[in-house]
Model the fold of this input.
Amino acid sequence: HEEPHLPNSLSLLSVDTLSLQKQIDELSTFSDTPAPSVTRILYSEKDVLARSFIKNLMGFAGLSVREDAVGNIFGRWDGYEPELAAVSTGSHIDAIPYSGKYDGVVGVLGAIEAINVLRRSGFKPKRSLEVIMFTSEEPTRFGISCLGSRLMAGSEALEKALKKTVDSKNISFLDAARSAGYAKGEEDLSSVFLKKGIYSAFVELHIEQGISIGIVTAIAAPASIKVDFEGNGGHAGAVLMPNRNDAGLAAAELTLAVEKHVLDSGSIDTVGTVGILELHPGAINSIPSKSHLEIDTRDIEEDRRNTVIEKIHHSALAIAQKRDVKLSEFKIVNQDPPALSHDSIIKAMEASSQELNLAHKLMISRAYHDSLFMARISPMGMIFIPCYKGYSHKPEEFSSNEDIANGVKVLALTLAKLSLY
Ligand code: HGY
Ligand code: MN
Ligand code: MN
Ligand code: MN
Done:
């Protein structure tokens, strides 16, 4: 029986930055929009190709690969006490329209490289180490954020909803999943649920603004809402202003109300965004008869965020009444609580940064991540690395080789420590 040991010398933790950068660049070519932008939508042809790429890399890293019914991908390195709960790490590779090549990707390719780093150093894990590529962290196609991790964490509401979920082209979730090779012969997606305690730790590496290594202490509470207004529409010339009930103006008014309610919280930590606003029929000379908005609102304080949601709802009702349009939908798609990192993992990340001589600071995550849901079944922590001007969700997204390598080293050492814990 082997004695647990950390890599004898930290200098043995060498990241192959060249290969890692090549992989990041190659993965970015699996995209539906031209470089430097990246668009990679769940279960699209490009997503399926990208998944093969990831599974191959996991294979090269000596991991045994498994996929679940929605396409969460797991690569496992068995520890010498494989019956113990494993230590897991990972992130996502789906990319919202016209975004960049590092969001999520660094936490997947970086995790595989962290495994390579540990292998090269001669390290033998006690607890097994597992790399996870989560399905659809971004809500782009089906409107559901952290789809894979939410389901993994046992969301029965989501399991039920997915049976009836369709995309904007009316393709059902299950058909889309099947076309990508998943959910075969299965209606019941509860096979994706993982037992609480299956992992002793989950750590995610991710880009974020700021200097040095960010050690995440908490993830803000996200929520999203879909709203539809309906009016009578009509001819843009013929219908006089007093006779209109313009669904587009209702949407415009609600959009401004969202901003007002968010600002009225008085806290810089409250944010709200209307990132989708669609008018039907979408002709210059037709009064909008339908409008559709999607609202994203977040806060590090859940109650304050919930107050904003209530105010938005009241505004939607009041605007509908005032403008004589119908509020045909006000659907809270998700209203998630925040999550706290686990002390033991914060300590492991801090110690690793310190031993590697990397400046670090504690911070909260304003973006959400799969870690928000992994925290429901496992102690969780996140490592942030700097990115250019804090840019994300746009093509200018960039992290330097050096910053990525530092992040991979902190991840590798943290995984090693947690594996022996
Ligand atoms: O929206 C988010 O916070 C994440 O980037 N999906
Ligand atoms: Mn993102
Ligand atoms: Mn991300
Ligand atoms: Mn709608």
